[in-house]
């Protein structure tokens, strides 16, 4: 059962920021994640501030320089089906298409997808884990087959969003509005590693709202997203990779390799990118890049299978994205 809370639906962003400033307030966008968390008492709130009526936060617009602005309340379906996104930012369209089920994509927003809570079953269950002000991460000696292999400790969640790694690969940033004004943060810097703070997932401060996502011009870069899951229905990534590759002729001039299902944040592999830059991608180079991406992996007792899974996935996706015919 849900704990009682009050409900407000502000008519402007300014009102929403003000309403969120009080202690115990929680922001509601599409509600697909928030309501599950409240129902399961992952956390409770005293007041729900629904931004769902703020039309100015909906929609996809091109910018004068050829980039894109996506309002935080734009549904994931809208992102997946946008002809412009599909043409210029294929990796983002593919990531949006890979999210959950059609119903959840129709209701869930891109802002909510970036800010959703982790899916660790200890965090979501009746365990007072580190992320819920407890003293330990139960995954360390528990059921850890879905946990992270990179960037873990002292908590070992994996970041759940499919769109976030694609946005990191595309060098996107988020615009944030809050009590202290407006700021812009690269999506790459938006999520927080547990080593820095195990009790928050993002850099958002009290009362701050993501208002839009800004993508720079694609400049002809190819991008893709693929995830492997346990079953051919809705599910979170066991392993996923977002790529953005710029080719000069058939040589890689710019590369982004970002893993999902690997780490507590979308995991950019600078090691893999360094292998790719200046190279024509063949089987040997793809294999070296995949090897480099996993070099620092530290699997837990039950998730060692992710290492070869990621290797194969990265190799296959690099071959697919650099294919010239
Ligand atoms: C069964 C199921 C399967 C799923 N599978 C996948 C999957 O495969 N891949 C995937 O990526 N996701 C998956 N999800 C997560 C789903 O995509 C998210 O629930 C959805 O994107 C959240 O969007 P929302 O608008 O409903 O957010 P809400 O539920 O309204 O909010 C989620 C969280 O983000 C915060 N928030 C929302 N919007 C903002 C904003 N603009 N600024 C600041 N904070 C904000 C809220 O306060 C809340 O804490 C799944 C969810 C479910 C329930």
Task: Give a description of the structure.
The protein is of the alpha+beta class and 325 residues long. Helix content is 29%, strand content 20%. The chain contains twelve helices and twelve strands. The protein has a five-stranded antiparallel sheet, with no helix packed on it. Helix 5 packs antiparallel against helix 9 and helix 10 runs antiparallel to helix 11. The longest helix is centred in the C-terminal third of the chain and has 17 residues. The mean pLDDT is 97. Bound molecules: flavin-adenine dinucleotide.
Write a brief caption for the model.
Helices cover 29% and strands 20% of the residues.
Strand residues, percent: 15-25%
Instruction: Compute the number of strand runs.
Output: 12
The ligands found in this model are: flavin-adenine dinucleotide
Fraction of residues in helix? 25-40%
Net shape: globular
Structural class: alpha+beta
Strand order across the largest sheet: 4-5-8-6-7
Number of helices, counting only DSSP H or I runs of 4 residues or more: 12
* H/E topology pattern: EHEHEEEHHHHHHHEEEEEEEHHH
The Cα radius of gyration reads: 19 Å
Average predicted confidence as pLDDT: 97
Largest sheet: 5 strands, antiparallel
The parts where pLDDT drops under 50 for at least 5 residues are none
